[in-house]
TrEMBL record:
Gene3D superfamilies tied to this protein: Homeodomain-like
Keywords: DNA-binding, Transcription, Transcription regulation
Domain spans labelled HTH araC/xylS-type: 198-299
Organism: Croceitalea rosinachiae
Protein name: Helix-turn-helix transcriptional regulator
Superkingdom: Bacteria
Residue ranges crossing the lipid bilayer per the database entry: none
UniProt xrefs under PANTHER family: ARAC-FAMILY TRANSCRIPTIONAL REGULATOR (PTHR43280), TRANSCRIPTIONAL REGULATORY PROTEIN (PTHR43280:SF32)
InterPro entries: Homeodomain-like_sf (IPR009057), HTH_AraC (IPR018060), Tscrpt_reg_AraC-type_HTH (IPR020449)
Amino acid sequence: MQHFKTLSSYLDYLGLPRPEHPLLSMFNSKDDSYLPCPRESSPPITNDCYSISFKKYVEGDLNYGRTKYDFTNGALIFIAPRQVLQWDNSIVFEQKGFSINFHEDFLKGTELALQIKKYGFFSYLVNEALHLSPKEEKQIESIVENIEIEYHNNQDVFSKEIIISQLDTLLKYANRFYERQFLNRKGISNDLLEQFNQHLCNYFQSGQLQEKGTPNIEKMANKMSVSKRYLSDTLKKETGKTTTEHIHLHLINEAKNILLQPNKSISEVAYELGFEYPQYFSRLFKKKEGISPTEYRELYKMN
């Protein structure tokens, strides 16, 4: 897999103009002007840059689970360093919009270098992009114009600080808008939760726990055609629990059923549930239930 260590080499690969700053590039179309058109397709690649792009789809459908989305209002897409990128020519983009690319070193020594890692949407897939309303588009465009002014001005000691401040503002707005998107798509979120629970049930019933251990969150997300981070964030918004917490709940419920079989020791129950060490199972059970597996078994016998 090809990896690009510098911003310039990545832009060269895309067929885009070289940046005015070695660690930052920006393209913004206005009125009848258009963004440079990057290559139509690419095998899997990675780079050391963050990307924030706003574009509109004019042809082709992107699927999320069993649902197709209308992207006519435009989508804001976030990409993190070393995230695997791959695309083909099946989706046609309208070239109006903007693209901001910056090397991770651009943030070194700043507060944003720490804060940016907290934004889960940098790990989302393209079909989990942020869909902006016309009002939201105007708010984002205003911030982007401020960045563009500084980018094209002669660089001085204040330029980087101002640009990073504007990037920080843009990301905070994006975080707010994603909250709105989660709220407005309750039906989709419920469907995602149902799919997740069904996949968990299937995994447990298939007898794979003892052979393969606790379900792999990433593999489950792939089966559902969503990213691991998007799945976790959606479930967190919908239920207040992470994917790991949901898996633990299923494990504990399954454990309760097995514990009621008196001919099995606690260690045998742990191994059957895919735990390599029985002590870990006992700690998890007590953490979730407030009593040990042995105490639970004795309590049931008393009742």
